[in-house]
Design brief:
Layout: H1 3-11, H2 13-21, E1 27-33, E2 40-43, E3 47-48, E4 53-54, E5 61-72, E6 74-75, H3 85-95, E7 106-117, E8 122-142, E9 150-156, E10 158-162, E11 170-174, E12 176-183, E13 199-200, E14 207-208, H4 210-224
Antiparallel strand pairs: 1-8, 2-8, 3-8, 4-8, 5-7, 6-9, 8-9, 8-12, 10-11, 13-14
Signal peptide: 1-19
Pfam family, one: DUF6060
Keywords: Signal
Length: 225
């Protein structure tokens, strides 16, 4: 199974989440980009991406992280639904005078890194992904959120790396930074590998979760009935 296919399966949840939220949130259909504010980079909250490890030798030891993480677009106004990213996409396209401008609402990206532990130390690895943010205002709103409400919207940052000759032989690498979090030796067993249930598929760094894929396939059949 290719990584790209996993990405499509994961994206299938976005419209469903959007539909589920429409009954109890504001419906704003327009987002106007404030181009007087330059785009800027922020970080997502850190996530643990490795098991806890202890370096017991006399030399530095390797600690590694290898898996995938899903990052969704963010907004600082809670009353707007997930599907409001479509208004953001439209606002960016319009401001670019018809130029295609991609705003990524969700990215399933590869986590892959190796760091060094000093002898006698214990730690796990955290990863803080990057997001690129814009500022704009709402329009054509019904509900609690008013027109001209200032909204920060951010999309996950990544790069695409080709892993083979076919167009779908690629992986998405999340942008961000890794850091070691020191713990005691006694705490190491409390931190299992967060990707223990992921299965490597084909190309390097391509992963999927068998249980997750089975659940999505089952849901798809249910929705078609």
């Amino acid at each position: 199974m290719k990584f790209a296919a996993s990405l499509v399966v994961a994206f299938a949840f976005a419209p469903l989440a959007y539909a589920q939220q429409q009954g109890d949130v504001t419906n704003c259909t327009i987002w106007e980009w404030d181009k007087t504010v330059d785009g800027y980079i922020e970080q997502y909250p850190p996530r643990r991406v490795s098991a806890g490890e202890t370096c017991t030798g006399s030399r530095n030891c390797a600690i590694s992280a290898s898996g995938v993480e899903m990052y969704d677009w963010t907004k600082n106004v809670s009353g707007l639904p997930y599907g409001y990213f479509q208004a953001v996409q439209a606002g960016l396209d319009e401001e670019q005078s018809g130029q295609e401008w991609s705003f990524n609402d969700s990215v399933l990206g590869t986590i892959e890194n190796i760091m060094e532990l000093s002898p006698g130390t214990s730690a796990y690895m955290n990863f803080s992904a990057l997001r690129y943010c814009y500022v704009g205002t709402t329009q054509n709103c019904t509900g609690a959120v008013e027109n001209r409400t200032r909204v920060e919207v951010c999309e996950p940052m990544y790069r695409s790396t080709q892993t083979g000759e076919d167009d779908d032989d690629y992986v998405l690498i999340m942008g961000g930074s890794y850091v070691l979090v020191n713990i005691s030796r006694e705490e190491v067993d409390d931190y299992d590998d967060p990707y223990a249930n992921l299965v490597r598929s084909g190309a390097a760094s391509a992963w999927y979760n068998e249980a997750f894929v089975a659940a999505v396939v089952g849901l798809s059949w249910f929705l078609l009935l």
